[in-house]
Write a structure and sequence with these properties.
mainly beta, Purple Acid Phosphatase, chain A, domain 2, 106 residues, four-stranded mixed beta sheet
Amino acid sequence: MLAAKMVTPSLGYRRRGTHTESRVISDNHALFDESLPSIFEGVAAILHAGDICALKVIDPLEKIAPVFAVEGDNDKFGKFPVERIEELAGRRLWFVTFLESCISFV
């Protein structure tokens, strides 16, 4: 059983004949499911929407693809912001764990 929430369909963009796919994961709560590498195989980026709970979860994900993460309410290590904007395949993506923490964007 997967130890994280998966958002499907994944974020996929077709641009000038190329296909870039990113996938979203959240709420690992310090668990790394062995099926995750096959789920994320071939993606251009992994977006982690928080509740990582242990940085050991990020390391194996980074071996698959670049990881862009935000911290959730159970994350206290201060490595990732609580909100971020990234540009992937020519599209700006804003992701956040708690909307109320983003007064600057509202």
